[in-house]
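so i finally got all the pieces together for this one. its two components total, 466 residues if u count the protein bits. some of the lines might not be protein, just check the labels. i wanna see the whole assembly predicted at once instead of chain by chain like last time, that was a mess tbh
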Amino acid sequence: MMMSHREALLLPVSPWFIALSLLMSLLLSMLLGLSQALWIPDVLAVSIFFWGIHQPHRVGMATAFVLGLWMDVQNSSLLGQHALSYVLLSYFAFSMHRRLLWFPIKEQMLQIAPFFILAELIGLLIRLITGDDFPGWPMLLSPFIETLLWPVANYILLAPQRRAHDPDVNRPI
Amino acid sequence: MALDSLDRSPPPFFRVGFAPLTKLVFFSALSLLLVFCDKQLQYTKPLRAGLSTIILPVQWLVLQPGVALSAIGTYFQSLDQAQKNLKAAELKVLQQTVRSQQVEQLQIENQNLRLLMDLQFSIDVSSQTAEVLFDVPDLFNQRIVINRGQLKNVALGSPVIDAGGVVGQVTRVFPLTSEVTLLTDRDQSIPVLNSRTGARNITSGDVLAGLQMIELKFVPASADVKEGDLLTTSGIDGIYPAGLQVARISHIERRVDISFARIHASPLAELKGRHVLVLQPAAASTTNKGKTP
């Protein structure tokens, strides 16, 4: 089983927690989006990428696509714009999920930053091609903030699995 | 033993579905197809309308923190401020009373004159108030979402105004909500009339020094335009009723090497207000009038 050398043994993940975390990040993304600031990070993208790394067979491209469509309708952007960038993120996550977790967290961040940047650029490119104006430079900050959110996601989303079960007579460890 | 009795499919543990690359190609192609259909062919309207109705309860939920915050803010607003607001409102009503009485008289006069000159009557447009739910989060354009939709007979293309003037136009109608493109959006154009000179122009949204403005297009550098000129809707497009205030010209730049002047105007509508008025498109109103004599 892959696992970073300094990571403790994890409990099995609950599918309900995955669903709940995706739902919460969806709500958070919708809420943060209302502020209309250009640099707002896409929390949902981080969640999708995170579960794509940790549970590649549970959260895959189909989930990413559906969530992307949801964000497209919420943001009233072109249908398929967020869907495409989330699907790409999910694919990249799958392609590196065996490798990434062997690295310490800072090196993980270095490795995933290009993918967040790429996902952002794909969305931007689609809009520029279809004839919209460039909204402003601060929007290029958001992939970096998303990368900075990676340790936070690690802390929060793995928390239920890090719980030590209470030892009793039959289970001493 | 017959060969076909051998089970050749992998045990369930090893079944992982399609190869990731296949899935990537499939979903990317689907996304790009959707983008293309959405931009070029308008096939995705029912899909978007359906999805937007599904996500509406969630949207409502997400809006609640903001609503609660503003409610708390209003609650703690000082009595002094409330009294000031009341006074200002009373003053405004008083001013408007004089004005509206004049309007009554002017309307009768106008009707008589039009009768004398055998011109078409100006039309009363039906309207309904709507509440602004939120600004559309998309970074690339400027739209707002209002809480009136198809079920309340909001028509595509309806003009939207507020206390200050024209806000924009309904560009997407869903069953319960609709989307209004603000007049400061780059793709939004309004035919206007310069109320001082009577010249007709077309505006489109523009950004000047970070401010959301509108720009007067295709005005010759030699044209008679001054800062402070009031722009109203000209009514020749069959959508906006004539005479709605749109903007006041705030910045004119004439350059020798370009034959057009660069003219910017600041919108008179509040644009960030809570309530707006949705009007029936003017042409629709006339046809309705024609049907029911």
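Residues 167 and 173 of chain A are 6 Å apart (CA to CA).
The two ends of chain A are 20 Å apart (CA to CA).
anyway lmk what u think
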